[in-house]
Amino acid sequence: MPNYRIIVDLSDFQLYLLDVNRVVRGFPVGIGKMVTKTPTGEYYIINKQPNPGGPFGVLWMGLSKPHYGIHGTNDPSSIGKQTSHGCIRMHNEDVLELAVLVPIHTRVTIRP
Q1: How far apart are CA 30 and CA 13, in angstroms?
Q2: Cα separation values, 1 from 74, 76, 104, 111, Å
Q3: In terms of DSSP bridges, do strands 41-50 and 107-111 run parallel, antiparallel, or are they unpaired?
Q4: Topology given in CATH for the domain delimited by 4-111
Q5: Is the pTM here over 0.85, yes or no?
Q6: Measured between alpha carbons, how far is residue 36 from residues 7, 73, 89, 101 in Å?
């Protein structure tokens, strides 16, 4: 059984899925603007909500830092840019793929 964790690398706009210490998959992401930066640190996925509405695309995965999450987007052109209010945006098909693989309580490290 895989032992997944997530690393979000803000410097290269990538979310990496790791099994123990081996990168299994990388996904491009959009991150927070200069004024509303994505917070760095250690967090956990605490919930998953399909079809959350608004700008969150097809899925929301809430982080243990209140009001922050990993989610889809209805604006795919925002991926690879600093455009969010601090959340991590993914292409809808990518966030769906990730959500199937990672359970609640998966560790998420966000690094500068």
Answers
A1: 6
A2: 33, 32, 15, 26
A3: antiparallel
A4: L,D-transpeptidase catalytic domain-like (2.40.440)
A5: yes
A6: 20, 17, 14, 29
| Cα 47 to Cα 64: distance, rounded to the nearest angstrom | 9
Pairing relationship of beta strands 69-71 and 88-89 according to DSSP bridges: parallel
Assess contact for 4 and 97: CB atoms under 8 A.
no
Name the token pair of 66: 């209140």
Token pair, residue 8, equals 């979000």
**The amino acid at 36:** T
Q: Pick the catalytic residue: 85, 87, 91, 105?
A: 87
Instruction: Quickly tell me which residue has 């990496």 as its tokens.
Output: 16
The answer to whether 71 and 60 have CB atoms below 8 angstroms apart is yes
Tens of pLDDT, residues 65-92? 999 999 999 999 999 999 999 999 999 9
Q: Report domain extents, the chain.
A: 4-111
Catalytic (active site) residue 87: yes
